[in-house]
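Thread: "does anyone have the structure for this chain?"

Original post by V.I.:
We have the sequence but no experimental structure in hand. Need at least a predicted one for the grant figures.
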Amino acid sequence: MKKTILALGAIAMMAACTQTKNNPFLEEWNTPYGIPPFEKIQLTDYIPAVKAGIEEQNKELEAILNNQDAPTFENTVAAYELSGRTLTKTTAVLFNLQETEGSDEMNKVVEEATALMTEHEDNISMNKAFFERVKAVYDADQSGLTREQQMVLKKLYQSFTRNGVDLEEAAQARLKEINQKIAAAQQKFGTNLLAENNAFKEQFGLPVSSYTSEMTSCEDRNRREAMFKAYSSRGNNGNEYDNKALCLEILKLRAEKARLLGFDNFAAYQLDNKMAHDPATVDAFLDRIIGPAVAKAKEEVADMQVIMDEDIQAGKVAAGSRIEPWDWFYYAEKVRQRKYSLDENLTKPYFRMENVRNGIFFAANKLYGISVEPLKDVPLYNPAVEAFKVIDADGSLLGIFSTDYFPRSSKRGGAWMTNFREQYVDAQGNDVRPIVINVCNMTAPTDSLPALFTIDEVETVFHEFGHALHGLLTKCHYPSVSGTNVARDFVETFSQFNENWAFQPEILAEYAKHYETGEVIPDSLVAKINNARKFNQGFMTSELCAASILDMKWHELTEEDLAKLSEGDQAANVAEFEKKVCREMGLIDEIIPRYRTTYFNHIFNSGYSAGYYSYLWAEVLDKDAFEYFEQQGIYNPEVALKFRQTFLEKGGSEEPMTLYLSFRGAQPDPGALLRARGLTEK
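Reply from O.Q.:
Generated one for you, tokens below.
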């Protein structure tokens, strides 16, 4: 028996050595620009690499703790900033590919990796010896530190205080358990939602990402109703992918976590280190917007009802019909065509994917002087991905940018920017440039047509490239504050700001060319697009604001509140709570929140819990900043350079409001958002 055990042990050791020896994550990447060698990576590589990365960072942390010199920024904070490189590059690939190349096998790997990472992160953030070194640096005179170093130190210090370093041992153990359960539940939420999205595709023959365009063009009211009900009940079907109980579980765990850390609720915990700072500020902000938005939406309902009544008279719709939620996109498009003579079937031929992408590059060149060159023969994780080299005006490399624009069954819905590598300065003083990608779910090409984008999709491309610019143009020293590593309610400022150039006539003339004839989009059509920019903003603002309020109300609940909601029929309780929130905010029946609870991925499987308001909050900053551009000239090179140097290059190296005041010279005006959306404040 002993020999057998020894033999089995030897086999296990040999297998482990083989996994480590041939593991691409544990080797230097001799690929162009250090792009991950996707073709070499196997599912079996991830967990050994995560474990090896954790072991490596633990040794690096041990070296910091064993340093006999007095704690300084360099030997403690900077040393920690540069630790964990193996773990960082492994998880960057794993978690990014799970979003785009997901599978049941990948999900199992992610579940295991998430558990390992959560435990590891808790062990660091609750390490009292490490905290004492960081605290010594934090409490010392910081006048010799740069502003960036001060911000890095502050963030690291808060990562301890906000994660239970001062708790008693039993409370720390419970907090670790909570974090593990939250991570697992969030992962399950995302897996369930992907399954529900795929079920929607099977039922209706189109991906969830095409829902809006189909609802806009579909003349069959029964099909629209069926699609709406299926879309809005994802995660709420009483099947194995139902998310209602999971949502309550996540909310209860978060509320308990907040209490353990000394906060009234999870919203208070989340906002403590954001620009808004507290729930009352966010609630007041959203309350200021929802009223004008709903008032405008009521006018929009009346406009649509006029056209529906005509359809009733023509026998196309049953007598007595009123506008329902499944009618909105369809009749709103009818109103747009009538009021503005704007038909998306006429605009889409000018918005071929390749041309729109050229448009984001042209606008960035005009504003910031950068250029973009396609890359061939570089590693890609999917044939649909295209890679580019981004170059500054002086010829220096800014980073690598890739696009992955079209839906796949393995890809989650939505659009996002992410990094395979963030910008930072390494231990040898080398400026490591970022590897950035935009992932979307746009209208895909067909056998007969190229990919032709809607107006909303064009905006999305500009939006996500705004995030990419934030990641590409950054000039920071430390990874924790480079690029988009800023406060959640600040990060959307730069993506939304970039949307302002999508339909500027001079930019359109450069990229909006007919896919068949090459004809530049006519001035008359450009005028119609821009005249309709404020169209349907009552609806758009109401659904966005409603989702933001729903997010806040869920996360303002205490443990006691959530315990009551967990009693009896949980499904009915979740639905009733959502109805109550919508009723109290004054939302009309024709509109539902942009995301209902059971498919609100932003707040249940992403970083936007008690943070979805960030889109509207950041839009205030974006629109206020753009008004400054309009005053000075929207292509004014001095203003564009100031914007780049103040915001895009600095990342999160200074306080957001400090940066904003430096650029604008005044506090942001919330009225700028209302003006941009054509809403009137009472």
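V.I.: this helps a lot. Residues 369 and 393 are 5 Å apart (CA to CA).
O.Q.: and Confidence is low (pLDDT under 50) at residues 1-16.
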